[in-house]
């Protein structure tokens, strides 16, 4: 039996990835941040590490500042944001993330919206501006802030594929 290249890549992937969680919200606190807590729980259950956590206001400069702190932290390998991805004027996560990416993983947003459409919210999925990519040799994923969106993104896309993503990033820089 031959092994596929994807299976081979997964075997060559790092066993541990150290993540930073950023919740984008004007109202949440560490005590009320259910989505940040869910992200932490799900990542830990999937065998990842959460090395940093932060809540920032839905403000372009604040979001970029939090991402930049993760990029500057040598122990952080992946940055995961929740919140601020909608189409309201106040929602700025998409722009803040997009403007820092070296490469965009279009498939993350596309698959997230497809899964949201087919499994959860129907045509309202068009309102999501989930985005993923690579910045400074680190994976970055930004998703809506609802617990349903976080559960979907982590369980169906990020947890199964993050090690493979890191393998692809590392093959060029390590």
TrEMBL record:
Keywords: Molybdenum cofactor biosynthesis. CDD domains: MogA_MoaB. Pathway: Cofactor biosynthesis; molybdopterin biosynthesis. SMART domains: MoCF_biosynth. PROSITE patterns: MOCF_BIOSYNTHESIS_1. The keyword ATP-binding does not apply. GO terms for biological process: Mo-molybdopterin cofactor biosynthetic process. Pfam families: MoCF_biosynth (PF00994). Belongs to the MoaB/Mog family. This is Molybdenum cofactor biosynthesis protein B. It comes from Paenibacillus oryzae.
